[in-house]
Amino acid sequence: MKILRLLLILAKLTLSCMQTCDPTPDPCAKQNNTAYERVKESLHSVKVCKYDATETERQLKGELVDHWNEKTDIVKQTKIPISDLPKFLDHLHDAYEGIDEGTRKKMNSVFFAKGGWEHKLMEWKMVKGDDAVARYGMIAFGRSPDKEFVDCMFVIYKLDFKIAPKVIVTENKHSMFFDFIKWTIHTQETEEQTLGVRTIKAFQNFVRSKALKGFVEEGLIEQINYVGSLDEIPDA
Ligand SMILES: *[C@@H]1O[C@H](CO)[C@@H](O)[C@H](O)[C@H]1NC(C)=O
């Protein structure tokens, strides 16, 4: 009898602890309250499909390119005073291939737009030369609740590659390879519109996955927002 009572008390204790110690936060009460949390929230809003990214890479490597060399550069900067943000962006522009004048200008309109913001994300891409160098960049900012400072995470995914000669011979208007060439050579938005929507999305998904994986490998974010298919990712 005594043991039973003891067990009952223990069970009650456990129950009441489960109720009072329940760690699930009230979503209304718990905002992301630091600049860094807001950067992460911004990156978490980017959806990628792991399966499709792997398939795209396999196809490119297996059939389309001979030589493939990739690298990810990551920068994390915390507590940048808002007034220093232009200087910081100028520094990135000077230090990293891929942020050209146009991209730098666009950053102004994104990060200094009127109105309050908690976090912002921007991406760009660049290609140099005929077939050799592709760059994709993603930058996320989170603003401190007092609006005085920002934290920033920045990544550039670099891909140097050489297209396999045998593929050029059998160039096919509807192949992924042909779209890849167009994607890599032409950087203007208007040119991109002529690509198949499916292909643009596949490449975009591929480079975004690489960028986010870079952040995870550096321990800057814990998770990637993976979805089951490309269809779940909104069109740019
Ligand atoms: C905080 O950020 C996480 C991702 O880092 C997000 O899933 C969550 O919805 C955010 N919470 C609020 C209250 O905005």
Compile the SSE list and pairings.
Layout: H1 2-20, H2 35-44, E1 47-48, H3 50-64, E2 65-81, H4 85-95, H5 101-111, E3 119-128, E4 133-143, E5 149-163, H6 165-169, H7 176-185, H8 189-192, H9 197-217, E6 225-226
Helix pairs in contact: 3-9, 4-5
The chain binds 2-acetamido-2-deoxy-beta-D-glucopyranose.
Poorly predicted segments: 6-23, 169-174, 185-196
Any idea how many domains? 1
Helix share, percent: 40-55%
Q: Specify the biggest β-sheet.
A: 4 strands, antiparallel
Give the overall average pLDDT. 77
Q: Outline, from the CA principal axes?
A: globular
**Roughly how many Å is the radius of gyration?**
23 Å
What order do the strands of the largest sheet run in, or round the barrel if closed? 2-5-4-3
How many strand elements? 6
Strand proportion: 15-25%
* Oligomer type: single chain
Q: Structural class, from secondary structure content?
A: alpha+beta
The ligands found in this model are: 2-acetamido-2-deoxy-beta-D-glucopyranose
Element order: H for helix, E for strand:
HHEHEHHEEEHHHHE
Keywords: Signal
Characterization of this structure:
By secondary structure, this protein is of the alpha+beta class. It has one domain (28-162, 194-230). Helix content is 45%, strand content 24%. It is built from nine helices and six strands. The chain has helices at residues 2-20, 35-44, 50-64, 85-95, 101-111, 165-169, 176-185, 189-192, 197-217, and strands at 47-48, 65-81, 119-128, 133-143, 149-163, 225-226. The strands form two sheets. The protein has a four-stranded antiparallel sheet with strand order 2-5-4-3, sandwiched between helices. Strands 1-6 form a two-stranded parallel sheet. A hairpin with a 4-residue loop joins β3 and β4 (133-143). α4 packs antiparallel against α5. The longest helix has 21 residues, at 197-217. The chain binds 2-acetamido-2-deoxy-beta-D-glucopyranose. 2-acetamido-2-deoxy-beta-D-glucopyranose (NAG) is lined by residues 27, 30-32, 40-41, 44.
